[in-house]
Amino acid sequence: MSERNKELAARKAAEYDVAGMVVGLGTGSTADFAIRALGERVESEGLEVQCVPTSKSSADLGEKVGLDIQNLEDHPVVDLTIDGADEVAPNLDLIKGLGGALLREKIVAAASTREVIIVDPSKVVDRLGTRSPLPVEVVPFAWGLAQLRLMDICRRAELRRRDDGETFVTDNGNFILDCHFSDGMPDPAATERTINGIPGVVENGLFIGLTDIVVVGEDDGQCRVLERQGK
Ligand code: 5RP
Predict the structure, then answer these.
(1) For the whole prediction, is pTM greater than 0.90?
(2) CA distance 81 to 115
(3) Could you tell me if the CB of 86 is within 6 A of ligand 1?
(4) Measuring CA to CA, how many Å separate 104 from each of 27, 96, 107, 124, 223?
(5) How many Å lie between the centroid of ligand 1 and the Cα of residue 31?
(6) Ligand 1 near 98 CB (within 6 A)
(7) What confidence tens digit (pLDDT) does each residue in 194-224 have?
(8) 227 catalytic per annotation
């Protein structure tokens, strides 16, 4: 899907009223568009915004575009977070973490009063686990055991590697196992709980009940805005 769709969704989300707020900065190519758009707004409108990044790369980009980068320790309540996703289900539950930042992203999402997700249309699915693997962050000591246990739940649990063949290491010093499902997940909430009960698992990329709004950048240049029902 084109960068144009991503930028469209990102620019729409960056238009939200953020004056005086603490804003969570997501991670990934779509979130990067939002960070840049926010930087432009802060500069042109002179907005007072404090930002909590979900990764080192988002912190670096935020700083580069002139955002005030803070930490979660000082701002444990985040007013609004803008982040990307790998899959969006009809009830707005998500798979995240192909960019490797799922742990901090999930913590910041849980700390956020409003979680806004920006995607291109290819990320919208009928069932989670059909398009993207599910990333699971594990402590390095336990990855072999975690992989064995995950194989009871999914078809294949693959240790993530970098392009140069070295093991991918997260900002938190952990490894990631990418779990492939044959036909998606029938009950993602149950899968989330089961996986987090495996010894050595730190967190998984299922975001259940955390999303408030999804902005989809469509091919016709419009944005489709989906809101969680019952909030
Ligand atoms: C990083 C993430 C990203 O938000 C997700 O992978 C989407 O990335 P992109 O916008 O580059 O497609 O969860 O951990």
Answers:
(1) yes
(2) 5
(3) yes
(4) 10, 11, 5, 23, 27
(5) 7
(6) yes
(7) 999 999 999 999 999 999 999 999 999 999 9
(8) no
